[in-house]
Amino acid sequence: MTRADVRKLIGPHELNAASAVAHVEKMAPFDPDAPEPGYTYVFPTLQLSLWRSVIPDASQDADDPTGRTFEAVGVGPDGYFTTTSWVATV
Questions:
Q1: Domain for residue 83, yes or no?
Q2: Are 67 and 51 spatial neighbours (Cβ–Cβ below 8 Å)?
Q3: Does residue 88 form part of some domain?
Q4: Total number of domains in the chain
Q5: Per-residue DSSP letters for 6-61?
Q6: Which of 10, 21, 62, 90 is 20 to 30 Å from the Cα of 70, by its Cα?
């Protein structure tokens, strides 16, 4: 991922989660098999992840911002987000 790519991610903490994922997907797909679906979106090609601690509940008040945006953006060195690097081992 280049600095120019990172600049394209303007406001991932401000966009609603669906918009942030759609925006990054314009550059690369996320891995649907990554752990914590809905909470974590991993984009291995970009060495990038988006994370939130909660997913909005269907009964949640529309004015309640909880879970509607991502809380963290992870950027790893080359190879960090390979298909096996984030999988928990037992």
A1: no
A2: no
A3: no
A4: 1
A5: HHTT--TTTS-HHHHHHHHHTT----TTSSSTTTEEEEGGGTEEEE-S----TTS-
A6: 90
Rg over alpha carbons for the chain, rounded to the nearest Å, is: 13
Domain of 38, in residue numbers: 3-75
Tokens of 44: 């291995």
Specify the higher pLDDT residue, 22 or 83: 22
The predicted-structure confidence for 6-39, as pLDDT tens digits, reads as follows 555 555 567 889 888 998 898 899 999 888 989 9
Can you tell me the distance from the alpha carbon of 56 to that of 67, in angstroms, rounded to the nearest whole number? Answer: 5
Residue 66 reports pLDDT greater than 80: yes
- CA–CA separation, 20 and 14 (whole Å): 9
At 61, list the tokens: 């008040």
